[in-house]
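Limitations

Structures in this collection are predictions, not experimental determinations, and the ligand pose is part of the prediction. Treat each record accordingly. The example that follows, with magnesium ion as the small molecule, is included so readers can see exactly what is and is not provided: the inputs are given verbatim, and the output is the predicted complex.
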Amino acid sequence: QAKQSGAGRYVVFDLEMRDSFERRVALEGDLRSALAHHELQLHYQPIVDLASGDVVCVEALLRWSRPGHGWVPPLQFIPVAEETGLILAIGEWVLREACRQARGWHTGLSRGLAPAVAVNLSARQLQEPGFADQVAAVLAETGLPADALVLEITESILMKDRETAITRLRELKALGVGLAVDDFGTGYSSLTYLRSFPVDILKIDKAFVDDVARDQEAAQLARAIVELGRTLHLSTVAEGIESVDQCDVMRSSACALGQGYLFSRPMDAAGLWELLQSTENGLELAR
Ligand code: C2E
Ligand code: MG
Ligand code: MG
Ligand code: MG
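Predicted complex:
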């Protein structure tokens, strides 16, 4: 009896594995054709100056409208794109598309009001020896000034291959683009290394921001990260601000910038353009 149920369980497990393998293969195939069939789209989320409400930057976030599945969130397909190497083509498309659109904001809004655009990089892109050349070519082709582009790299990517990261970041820095450490606080940074990376911005992970309004310790931790940033001459962005209280704590911690549903959810290019025009690029900050 016991043996039978054991064998039964094994068969079920095997079927489940085959099912998830087949789903995975289908996902891979669909993803391969997504680029060619224009199923990928960028949405944009404002990053605001916590003192003035100005939209100083806009983060580009990848969206995939997969036929028969609706919108697939990036965390479901980016890992697959990374394993297959497809992320290199996808990442180049994201970069070009974001720069092209940002160039449009710069043309359409008076200079000084147009926000910079922030683009997320994957580990594979950073490993490419020719990546900085690709960025330079896209900037030249789209006409976007280098200082209007910010590249976001997660702390864990930076720490995984520090030597390659430093080389690549120096090349990128030489182009004049801004560099941000994404999801800071989750990747076990060596502070010595952090100091040697030529970055400009620390993005404090949402996990730290979540509890700042109800937990003294969390608030002090967030404040400590802002101070660490100041020591290293880095600007700080609080990610995932959802409430007025969280915003107040981060502002009083001298965190310069914030991003989150409180200000705006990510929206498509048309929605963002409307927002930039209607607000003359300043969001009313609730206090
Ligand atoms: P991320 O770079 O840390 O982006 C911030 C994520 O937090 C986004 O999720 C955004 O929608 C979400 N978010 C922003 N404000 C709030 C808030 O107030 N509350 C909550 N609950 N969430 C908020 P999204 O768009 O699902 O992206 C997830 C991750 O996927 C990104 O995290 C980034 O690591 C990755 N990703 C997105 N686009 C790209 C891309 O073009 N290339 C690469 N390599 N990765 C990307
Ligand atoms: Mg990011
Ligand atoms: Mg982030
Ligand atoms: Mg994050």
